[in-house]
Amino acid sequence: MSSPPLLGPPRVRFGVDPSAPIGGAWYPYTVQLADELPGVLAAARSQIGDVTGMDVNWSSFRRIPGLDSPDSPMTPPLMSLTAGGVVVTILVIPPRTASSLAAILLRQASNTVSPETQLHSLEYRRGERILELAARAVTSSKN
Predict the structure, then answer these.
(1) 98 pLDDT more than 50
(2) Distance CA 113, CA 25 (A)
């Protein structure tokens, strides 16, 4: 069996606080998530430990438009990874999302400092709204 071609390093970032409602983000290259998942799990291992469980909040990732689309779902796609008894929920950014918004979401979800010039941009505010929706979905599912 041959392995799928490597598209590049996994575009995943984890925050410093795994107990945060959104503990990171992943921006896959394609909708073939199974092909890219080993890279994400390897990145997760170095950040949160060995992943022993995984859950998602969608049934067909192929049908999800970009997060900058007017047809974007009210609840953004989320993946929960369980490692060492800790559950870390990450935002999964559909590959149809503009790379500029995806880069901002990766920074925001991992609490990485954004360039000063982005802090007041429409894209930055859109990213904040998307993460607020995601955090609300996580919080309401725990209650």
Answers:
(1) yes
(2) 15
Q: Both tokens of residue 47?
A: 């950040």
Mean pLDDT of the 6-34 span: 91
Residue pointed to by tokens 């799990």: 41
Using only the alpha carbons of the chain, give its radius of gyration.
Answer: 15
SS3 123: helix
Boundaries of every domain in the chain: 12-142
Tens of pLDDT, residues 40-81:
999 999 999 999 999 999 888 889 999 999 999 999 999 999
How far from 36 is each of 44, 76, 94, 120, CA to CA, in Å? 13, 19, 13, 33
Residue 4: per-residue pLDDT: 54
CB neighbours of residue 93 within 10 Å: 29
| Contact indicator for 80, 51 with CB cutoff of 8 Å | no
Q: What is the pTM of this model?
A: 0.91
Strand partners, 88: 81
Q: Could you give the CA distance from residue 112 to residue 135 in angstroms, rounded to a whole number?
A: 17
Residue type, position 106, single letter: L
Here the tokens at position 54 are 């995984």
